[in-house]
Amino acid sequence: MWLFTKYGFYSVVSARQGDGGYSQPVDDERMMVRARMRNHLESLRERFVELLGPSEIQVSQGTDYAYRLFVPKSNWSQVVAELANETDYDNFKSAVAKHQGANGTAYNHALHDVWTVMNWLQK
Hints:
The chain has helices at 38-47, 49-52, 73-85, 92-100, 105-122, and strands at 2-5, 8-16, 26-35, 58-59, 67-72. The two termini are 24 Å apart. A hairpin with a 7-residue loop joins strand 4 and strand 5 (67-72).
């Protein structure tokens, strides 16, 4: 799943067993939360320190998502539920701009690009 939040953008998939290498089978109880920007994972981990805090951000050079967290699926489910519960805005892109400030300018621009591309589907 792709997840765009005020903390950042994540691609979340079931992790593979062991070191998560391609030769390993899928681990149905563990998730790999991937990000293109390290600060997005750091922001999410700071917000959900009790659920994600002990997870180390791993750097994967030469992959499409350079930064990864491996977390138990039960913890990830709680993170997603809390993200839904804390939604208190009526305009997502504006909430991102407010939350991220000047540090999130590139992310905010990317969100507008994604909005434009997805809007084409509606037409």
